[in-house]
Amino acid sequence: MLDRVRSFVETYQMLQPGGRVVAGISGGPDSVCLLFLLKELCREQGARLYAVHVHHGLRGTEADGDEAFVRELCAREQIPLRVFSFDVRERAAREGRSLEEAGRLCRYEAFREEAERLGGARVAVAHHMDDQAETVLFHLFRGTGLRGLCGMEPVRGDLIRPLLCVRRQEILDWLREQGHSWRTDSSNESREYMRNRIRGELLPYVREHINPQAERHVAEAARELAEVERYLEAKTEEAFRLCVREEEQGCFLFETGFRRLDPVIQGRLLRRCMEAAGGLKDVERIHIRILSELMDRQTGSQADLPGGRKARREYQGIRLEKKEAAGKRALGGQTGEASGEAAGEREVRVPEIPGRVLDCGRVWTFSLESAQKDQIIPQKTYTKWFDYDKIKQCLVIRGRAPGDYLEINREHGRKKLKAYLVDEKIPAGEREGLRLLADGSHIVWIPGYRISEGCKVTEDTRIILKVQIDGGEEDG
Question: CA–CA separation, 123 vs 20, rounded Å?
Fold first, then answer.
């Protein structure tokens, strides 16, 4: 048992030499086994072990007995213990949760509070292979995607699960061999909870009539699915970087890049966009399908989504807005033009050049260089070069304002900014969030689109102003 758990812990680098670990100890067989194994592994690693026990206030004298047992155990083994007490029933009623969910929240809050008090310790819990099988089946029966079928991870942030490599029966056999006692939680026998029915009715039937190693096979399948999930997640994040522009009020998904993706990644990317625009609470398959179908609808089509979010089909793709942004848009029937003019009130003056300035989460970098004869100016989306001598006022970064214009030819012909944006079919929602580089009312640069002809580098240019946004990547 110790060798298997040691190997598992080393594979996933759960313990660090000189580190600290907080073990959640209920008094049941799994957590008692965890405590004794971790004590030895921490001794080998030079790590410090601590324990936390949570009294849920639910099982009366039985729960009091659990606490007394854990106190005596930790005192005998010289393991520092901290006990937390909660009124789980009151919390469940107050927050509209089940007792099971409220209890879990209380436990993990206690574990992490102690871990933080100890200066960033890891938290160890006693989930084992049978728990993994129960979790996967629970997710499957309740309805889940690939991520839910991966079950519990051996390591998730500061949380570690050293016993995921062993069966429950192996834990009980080991405890008996070592002469260790434990407490039995009567609530585990209740058939009120679905997990208990899976544990007490379904899995015993499967072991007897189908395969005695059923739990192990389910857990192994979950591990393989987790590897597939990690690969797909990496591909999804890559697609998100290429196809999505994150915005203050949500995100914008570009159709061109989206259409090139495999359908599997498309669905995952839509889910990732929902996460970026307010999280995944209450998001189900139907909402991902609604987003997918919106991409095939005409410009101006909209969809309402969980959490007060709105999705809108625009010229180049789908704009997904958080609840706050959707509410502001609806309030008083504001138009895109009015919102854009309001954005013009937020000005950021360009500092002394060379210099840098932060605007709306993006870093703008300004530098000067001498023009060279026959110099070729590269064509990049987020790095631009200007004739510095043609800048007449102090440059500012701002939104749109009345009277804004661009120079569209070398003869200083002008075009109103509003007319340019409409002619280029830039969606109203996108126009609202534009941040412009302006010289008075003269718009020098519309990032992502074009610069003014009036400031372009020519053969007569002496000094070049170079402007980069977020390092000057060629694409967003």
Answer: 9
Same domain, 24 and 74: yes
The residue that leads in pLDDT, 200 or 269, is 269
- Report which of 317, 267, 310 is spatially closest to residue 292, judged by C-alpha positions: 267
For the chain, the residue count is 476
**How far is the C-alpha of 453 from the C-alpha of 409, rounded, in Å?**
5
Residue 474 — very low, low, confident or very high, per pLDDT cuts 50/70/90? Answer: very low
12 and 128 together in one domain: yes
What's 281's domain CATH number? Answer: 3.30.465.60
Same domain, 219 and 265: no
Residue ending a domain, choose from 312, 333, 354? 333
Report the distance separating Cα 393 and Cα 454, nearest Å.
14
Residue with tokens 């609604």: 290
| Global confidence as pTM | 0.62
DSSP string covering 377-442: PP--SSEEEEEGGG--S--EEE---TT-EEE-STT--EEEHHHHHHHTT--HHHHHT--EEEETTE
Q: How many domains does the chain have?
A: 3
Residue 264 pLDDT class (50, 70, 90 cuts): very high
Give the per-residue pLDDT at 192.
65
> What domain range is 188 assigned to?
2-226
CB 192 within 8 A of CB 186: no
Question: Which residues face 27 on adjacent strands?
Answer: none
- Assess whether 29 and 158 both reside in one domain: yes
* Segment 198-222, tens digit of pLDDT: 888 898 999 999 999 999 999 999 9
CA 363-364-365 angle, to 5 degrees, is 115
Q: Are 415 and 406 in contact (CB under 8 A)?
A: yes
* 242 part of a folded domain: no
